[in-house]
Amino acid sequence: MTLKPSIMPGRVPFPKLSVLYAVGLLAMLVIGTVPGLAAGPDAPSSEATGERVLPPQPTAVVLSMTILPPDGGADVSAPPWMEVFADGRVIVRGEHPGDPTTRGHLTRAQLQSLVSEVVGEQQLLSCDTLLLQEQLQLAGARRGISANVEGASTTVLQIVTRDRTHEITCQAVPLLERRFPEVDAMQRLAHCRRRMLNLAAIVRAGGETAAVQLCDAVNRQLASDWPDIDPVTPEDLQVVRFGPGGSRMCQFLVPGQIGVAGETGMVSVAAIRSPGSPLRVSVLPGSVPGE
Questions:
Q1: Which residues are registered as beta bridge partners of 155?
Q2: Among 13, 50, 182, 233, which residue's beta carbon has the most beta carbons within 10 A?
Q3: What is the gyration radius of the CA atoms in the chain, in angstroms?
Q4: What superkingdom heads the lineage (predicted)?
Q5: Which residue has the higher pLDDT, 7 or 80?
Q6: What contacts 282, CB < 8 A, 6 or more positions away?
Q7: Are 94 and 79 in contact (CB under 8 A)?
Q8: 198 and 238 assigned to the same domain
Q9: Are residues 158 and 61 located together in one domain of the fold?
């Protein structure tokens, strides 16, 4: 499964440096204290390795996410919509009464990769809810665009490590991600949200093998009916919803052309599978889950 900038080392000649000064400079570079140099987003840290971050208790929840409806009618005492445990278990609960609860499992390597991506690469532990809102409001004021969105869902993402619990809450994540590309924390939160949605969708699809089989079936229809659309992969799967009679609606988001002018954007590839019926595939201009 997946939904890094590289640092090119420069050549700095210093033929006249003494050995002592060179050793001191090397030490400062190692600990990141050279004046004027700051660690980049992908700088290694003690939190960049999933194994160091994971709680020791196998039953501990490492990551959880809930997407609250805009009407505020959700039961705040209910467990999170999605939970990832330290032993690799994944639980995805239904959004509506009657929806089944689905379960999956990550290998240790997959779990470590997920935690490293969220905590290390995306540095979500440094993303603070209040600070994010301030940054969005300032960005909105500078550009004359509102950072307040009425009638949008709210994402609640929680991370539990060995020594802390951190929660981020933000409304209208997909919309604000597009509206304010300059707000780095917003982009990182949106990335992690997509990553969790993709994991939940794969679990709901029946696991990795079932997701690959679904992609193969969808791609056969795309090649026949929509040859200009790129083939979908399990990493593009963002939503799996249950319908009546055991049917499932699966939504992929892929780059493609939208509109009569051929402008590029996200294309939604929807596939509906019902027992005893052939797979139905449709392609529409993309809409991001949770909008």
A1: 67, 170
A2: 50
A3: 22
A4: Bacteria
A5: 80
A6: 269, 270
A7: no
A8: no
A9: yes
